[in-house]
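Table S2 (text version). Query chain:
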Amino acid sequence: MNIIFMGTPSFSLPTLQQLYKSDHNIQLVVTQPDRPKGRGRELNASPVKQFALEKGLPILQPEKSADPEFVNTLKQLNADIFVVVAFGQILKKNLLNLPRIFCINLHSSILPKYRGAAPINWAIINGETETGVTTMKMDAGLDTGDILLTSKVPIKPDDNAQSLHDFLACKGASLMLETLRRLDTGTFEPTPQDSRLSSYAPKLNKEDGLIHWDESALKIHNRVRGLYPWPGAFSFFRSKRFQISKTETTIGGPLVKPGSIARIADRGIEVGTGDGRIIVTELQPEGKKRMAAKIFLAGNKLVVGDQFNNEPRLVIPS
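Corresponding structure-token output:
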């Protein structure tokens, strides 16, 4: 098939790589404009653009996908399929109607659950034990199109958003190739979504990472996993912001005040919650690099009863 590929971040890359290796013809790669990144705010090309440049594929980077000149350029290519994977812009009807067959989107959840921008994160935060990837026929709604294929995977207890993201990106690439194969042979029909079963996974922001210690140890643990590496779960300790990068739940021990340090050991910092205790095994102090709790403890004296807080506390000099 003649394909126009639309994608931007690293999640898009395995699908583009598999399409490039296949017998399909990539007519054009569409990705977001270069964006400033890092402390120097230098313009940075997306992972998709970097791969397309390396392979000599034609590239377009529209500021707005509804731009008439951009739409007209795509119309002239007479593509069979648009393959869309985390492109980052909503496609209007004038684009959705261009390909000979239709536009296919790869979504990182088992639709209709977790429609929206951050399905991987919210599946972990909510304690799901299963997720997956779905290919769908795109329509004008937000992840509401008819389902083509779904592939389910377990969420492992030690998964975080990064590890699950990487696994689903590769799983999704295989599912997209299988979807195209079946479309080419005409062996299946799209299935409408049951919106009664839908849920929403909104875009994350930095404030979502604030740990509320009166929640259960399991809920806090899932939030830490689901928000790693971005935006990251965090709390305040001795007026400084600490990112909590890795945790474990533990059983036993008397109840202690939520956020209060109950025990200090080589394994980590054991902290009370609203239900049970959690062990902080990896953290990032404000202005420093991420480190194992054992390394942090070697250079910082903590005592039982010290308190993690939901907000910075004013330190009055003695």
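Notes on Table S2: The chain is about 25% helix and 25% strand. Residues 206-309 form a domain with the Methionyl-tRNA Fmet Formyltransferase; Chain A, domain 2 fold (CATH 3.10.25.10).
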